[in-house]
């Protein structure tokens, strides 16, 4: 057979095939096929790991049963172990304080800066770019730099305090300051995110509204509380929700700066979960997974709350 | 799109954001050959915790040579040492353990407990030449789970210039009293005393143990009067300003960096800093860590064990044993220990090391006095004791609790964890 005739027969056969197929398959099938990639992706990367983590937290794992299999089902024993642990309540309190205080300061400072930069004065673009630096740096770099700056003996912060006559503070090594120090570092890292999102939210508010407010004789303060803030509410809500999820899981900053110490004084659920699962020569996967699940539940509650609020708004 | 399906998608999105929160949920599928080829020829996998060595290093060349001698190809992977325990456990769970695993000595008992490792009886590896105090870290219930490739331990580095300025003769530092007296003189001379690492991890416990054991305390009784005296020694140094407050957050590397500034008289650090000491730019010396009553305190042994993980195909053990024997043979151990700046595990090779480099004499003696953390049949109980222990010295040093109260709480935790 020549190449030419081969091509002709193929060309003749080609249209026949697709003409037959769609008639037999229902539209439902095609829909499932289109959905398949995302469903497989969700199952493989979200549902299965979630299931495994749940399973891990409901069984009594020792090193032996982790390797050999056959860990006995132990119900909520791991959760009981975790709640009875002396670290639980301090860690919960630290998680709430760390997340809450970080969010308040990040949001307030981010909002103030966004309003400030929205006025588009000279150099505002350059200054705004500078505020993004914390966001661009790898976390390990910024966290290590913070831990050098806050070093008790050779840190620049204590040096500055000393030069104005204030007693040096053991930022990272005193139980009463360690949590404050990691919160300060985390606020600094979180400001650019709030700034960027709120700034773009501000751009979306039409200038006519402000003009109308100005004609009605609103002061600057009233313009902010009566116009800017209410119109920014949807953007603020999503900023706070994302900020909450990011802050709840913050691990690297705390681990690099204090390792959750001294003696748990800056331990949050995220660092505690890591410490249980990987921070010891003898891993405790069950309780570690249990703490991780508690974190997921906390984030999930706020996620659902957000969806509820949003639905109420759109109705 | 209908309202309900959009709502559904939002719920999925909220859920998926939440999922990313846990690091523990990922089931890391470590990649390594499954090594199902029959014995004699084929590829043998070796994992080690020395990622700093690349293919051109003596270490990797030695691995290749041992493979060639045994008639097989060696595939080597270097992991960060903190990663290696979890990698090894996951590999064992999935049935693709490497043939040879070189792992930090306190981890051996954990892996042995998990049934991951073969005993030296299974693989017929000869351990008779190894110093018993080093081998003990890899022994549990009368069985031996590997052979040490070399050892390192802790001693005190001193800065000669600082001690001279304070008119302290390092030879007079024989016990805790004379050490504290030396620190007092150094502080009076306007310099800084001693740095160490008291961080809240295994590294901190490693650094505390020479003082703990040097007081005569036992890991089975954390709140004994001896133990309290060891912690009181550290706490007093901090209170009196002989040691900086930053020790609470120091790793052994950052503690060394403090010493390298040239302001400190002493630094508690390991064999591995010898190369850096030569680069420090000041004259240094090394003395053993004194015990409370005088004499060398038992420091914990560091360093790795060469182990052979369990394989489904037991025919592979014959070749694995050849590889292990090759790595721990006298000549090769000398090369390896020189590269790693370790002290050898057999006295024959130790003598050779001292002959080649008299500086190592202090270290060889320190290693002879040293003790494995998992020795005394503590095995997997050790990690459960070590964690409360580091909690205790962190609490006492940060001023949260008195040494006695901190250790009492630690003993309660350790006792209930090791029951």
UniProtKB/TrEMBL annotation, chain B:
PROSITE patterns under this entry?
A: PROKAR_LIPOPROTEIN
Keyword Transport attributed: yes
Task: Name its species.
Answer: Paractinoplanes durhamensis
Family from the record: Belongs to the bacterial solute-binding protein 1 family.
Q: Give the keywords, sorted.
A: Signal, Transport
Q: Which SUPFAM superfamilies match?
A: Periplasmic binding protein-like II
* UniProt name for this protein: ABC transporter substrate-binding protein
Q: Name one Pfam family in it.
A: SBP_bac_8
**Gene3D superfamilies (alphabetical):** Periplasmic binding protein-like II (3.40.190.10)
Q: Where is the signal peptide?
A: 1-23
